[in-house]
Amino acid sequence: MGQTLQGKRAVVTGGAQGIGAAIARRLAREGAVVAVLDLDAAKAAAALGDPHPGFACDVADTASVDAAFAGVRAALGGIDILVNNAGIGSAPGDGMAEYYAGQAAQATDPAAHADQTIHCLDEGWLRVMSITLDGAFRCSRAAVRIMAEQGTGGAIINIASTAAVAGNGPVPYCTAKAGIIGMTRAMARELAPRGIRVNAVHPGATETPIYAPLPQEVKDAVAADSVMKRLAQPDEIAGAVAFLAGPDASFATGSTVTINGGSWFI
After folding, report:
1. What domains are defined for the chain?
2. Annotated catalytic sites, by residue?
């Protein structure tokens, strides 16, 4: 494997587990020095080990984001690549408990409704938005400030989701991920004169810790939606990110790469 990112300085949010950890490992294998950001400072520091630093970061809090990026700048001397991976799919008060209860009731009552919207409280909606969408903006803002000062360009890769287009997920999550795509396109236009490329990846259902507790029949049903009849592996998502971060994607900006096994086509 070539070292396509030799000498580059990368940041991966939510990089201590799942897709984020796979992305951090892949960028490091490609030669980048990778700063791992995660809520858990110990896990962030242990994710890759020396010479790749880890920083505690709550992407829902501006002060935490700014402090983490100041730490990255001090440790790495700058930033060339940002991967906005941190996000959540659901939060207390978002109406998903009632939705699942409605789904269960439909097994015996065809007239039952599986509703989320009417049960979704502000705190549930805002929590998903604050982490999944607003967090990506906060981190992008912090990184772009550094990239602009460097004057050497850069690459931002946002982890979106097929849910942004297919709508197969919690309403706040689908909305947040659709917002990620809009943000990607707007920033791509704005930042092109600075040599900063902004792209996104649409993962489909991926074998991560979130899927671990699900019954096998549920995972099988999700996999059946793909023409490849399986879930993605985190390393397969990481490969798309490495491509968008590297020189082979030098003319790609405002783009979305879909990695979902053909569960739907666009």
Report:
1. 9-89+131-259 (3.40.50.720)
2. 173
Cα(112)–Cα(87) distance, rounded to whole angstroms?
31
pTM of the model: 0.92
How far apart, in Å, do the first and last CA atoms of the chain sit?
30
Rounded Cα gap, residues 241 and 83, in angstroms: 8
With bands split at pLDDT 50, 70 and 90, how would you rate the model's confidence at 247? Answer: very high
The answer to whether the CB of 195 falls within 8 A of the CB of 179 is no
Distances (CA, A) of 84 to 95, 110, 184, 199: 26, 41, 11, 10
197, β-bridge pairs: 155
| pLDDT tens string 223-241 | 777 777 777 688 788 999 9
Report the C-alpha gap between 114 and 261 in whole angstroms: 28
